[in-house]
Specification:
This protein has two domains: 316 residues, no CATH class; 180 residues, no CATH class. Helices cover 37% and strands 18% of the residues. The protein contains 13 helices and 20 strands. The strands form five sheets. It has a six-stranded mixed beta sheet. Helix 1 crosses helix 8, helix 2 packs parallel to helix 11 and helix 6 packs across helix 8. The longest helix is centred in the N-terminal third of the chain and has 35 residues.
């Protein structure tokens, strides 16, 4: 799964957490939202799919959820990238086999992503280093209450309490050697305020909030182009503070809410600069913190159970992807790789490509039973193909080429990934399917490869002049098959098939009699 596709999944997850946060802020423990944000961060950091029958994408089904899932392989920035967009169940993979105009256009987007990522990485790094330079001038605090407080809270990581004239509000920084940094003008005689401040910062230290903020910054740099990640970054930092506030109030009792709120107001101050990896009493969202603190209900066993269920259900629905299954009620996960062919040699024509495969069924063969143009409930068209595995092995992955023709047999150049504004039209569409197909089993699934129809898809980005769908026939040829035992079959006749059909007019009779198309499988 590529970065943009991860970002889209993450955006949906962020939106879900935002809704839950808005509805249950005063009813659930604040730790609940912090855990949800942490799950969002993990989802955005780890580019893998976790198929689940409980995923919201599985529930929606291919007939409903066909949002753009953009994927570009960011780890090969120097390679020519084929940047495409397709249905939700499609993964988009890179193609380094060409260097045409479309690839160059996509590479420009990769460069823009790199520039943005480096800009924010440098921005946060410089801000952090500048703060650490200023913090070096901080001096240890020599105070009886401070010394006693530190003795009562031993940690494997030694905590230091220092003071500095460079800040106006308390903060905590450092991971292995955490430091609670206090303003030089702190009233060291006000023990009530000090106990709240130290307890608040101590919670940050115990919860490794500096590490969490570092992870949030990393995700922000990677997904800087995603507005939902900006929202996540802001709300995550707010909820860290809210969770700390709640922990402190729980420690000192419900009666401490008023005194603690007054301390927050007292400590409200403008900061001298950005502190991306520090936890502090900033004025940001101070009103929200006090309002939430005063309105938060007391935690009960029932609320804890509901909070756990909320986390489990939300993660199960939005942190997972649609399950790949051969059952007819579930859709297989497909992956797309658009192969840019450049200039094709057209001097090789086969009068009858059925000669490519054996007329007799081989004990080791695979058959394309059909490839029909079907329609979803909303009238939008798609290509639905059916494959039969006549071998004695389980198929785990297939790669095949699609070609489209109109009702008169003329080849069609299509924008196969019509949701990608940078995609260009081409005769061929290279598809990679990672759906298991058992021995002697015929593939069964709903849905297929969506085709653009300007008359039906009014809500989709307009392609060309918004023409209606013209695809009447689809020819498909396997290029590669991967079996469960690791064996790989590469179609030796694929190139001849491609030269015979791609961009060539085909008779109606041949189009109608193309299927079933059988491949003889010979493995070493």
């Amino acid at each position: 799964m590529g970065l943009p596709e991860v970002s889209v999944y993450g955006a949906v997850f962020v939106a879900a957490v935002m809704i839950i946060r808005a509805m249950a802020m005063n009813y659930l423990p604040k730790k609940t939202f912090l855990v949800l944000w942490e799950m969002v961060i993990l989802r955005l950091m780890i580019p893998i799919t976790i198929p689940s029958v409980f995923s919201v994408y599985t529930f929606l089904g291919r007939s409903i959820n066909r949002p753009p899932l953009l994927k570009a392989e960011m780890d090969n920035m120097t390679s020519t990238i084929s940047h495409t967009l397709s249905q939700e169940h499609f993964w988009i993979e890179q193609s380094i086999e060409s260097a045409d105009v479309n690839s160059l256009s996509v590479s420009a987007w990769s460069v823009i992503w790199c520039i943005g990522m480096l800009f924010f990485a440098v921005f946060f790094t410089v801000s952090y280093l500048r703060c650490r330079m200023e913090f070096r001038t901080a001096l240890p605090v020599k105070n009886t209450y401070v010394e006693q407080w530190l003795k009562e809270r031993p940690l494997k990581r030694q905590i230091s309490i220092k003071q500095s004239d460079r800040i106006s509000t308390p903060l905590t920084y450092g991971i292995f050697h955490p430091v609670i940094l206090m303003p030089k003008k702190t009233d060291w005689e006000n023990v009530n305020h000090l106990q709240y401040i130290f307890s608040h910062e101590y919670v940050h230290i115990c919860h490794f909030d500096t590490v969490k903020k570092l992870a949030a910054v990393l995700v922000f740099c990677l997904h800087w182009f995603n507005p939902f990640v900006w929202i996540m970054y802001i709300l995550f930092n707010r909820d860290i503070e809210l969770a700390c506030d709640e922990s402190v109030v729980r420690q000192f009792g419900e009666k401490s809410k008023s005194a603690y709120s007054r301390m927050l107001i007292h400590m409200e101050a403008k900061r001298s600069g950005l502190l991306p990896f520090c936890s502090n009493f900033s004025k940001n969202a101070i009103e929200e913190r006090i309002t939430v603190l005063m309105n938060t209900k007391q935690t009960t066993p029932a609320r804890l159970i509901f909070a756990c269920l909320t986390v489990i259900v939300t993660v199960s629905l939005f942190a997972t992807s649609a399950i790949a299954s051969t059952d007819s009620s579930l859709d297989g996960m497909l992956a797309v790789n658009v192969l840019q062919t450049g200039t094709l040699e057209t001097d090789i024509l086969l009068t009858n490509t059925k000669d490519i495969v054996s007329d007799k069924k081989s004990p080791m063969s695979i058959t394309h039973e059909s490839a029909d143009i079907l329609y979803y409930e909303d009238g939008s068209p798609y290509i639905h193909d059916i494959l039969t595995n006549n071998t004695d092995k389980t198929i785990t992955e297939t790669q095949y080429c699609m070609l489209a023709y109109n009702e008169e047999g003329f080849p069609l150049k299509l924008v196969w990934n019509f949701l990608d504004s940078s995609a260009e039209n081409s005769f061929e569409n290279i598809v990679r399917s990672r759906e298991n197909l058992l021995s002697n089993q015929t593939e069964e699934y709903h849905g297929g490869w969506s085709l653009y129809d300007g008359e039906i898809m009014k809500d989709f980005p307009k392609v060309g002049n918004g023409e209606p769908n013209q695809v009447t026939y689809a020819l498909i040829c396997l290029k590669e098959v991967v079996f469960e035992d690791g064996a790989i079959w590469n179609n030796p006749n694929y190139e001849n098939w491609f030269r015979a059909y791609a961009g060539k007019e085909v008779t109606i009779e041949e189009l109608q009699n193309y299927y079933p198309y059988e491949y003889r499988i010979e493995l070493n």
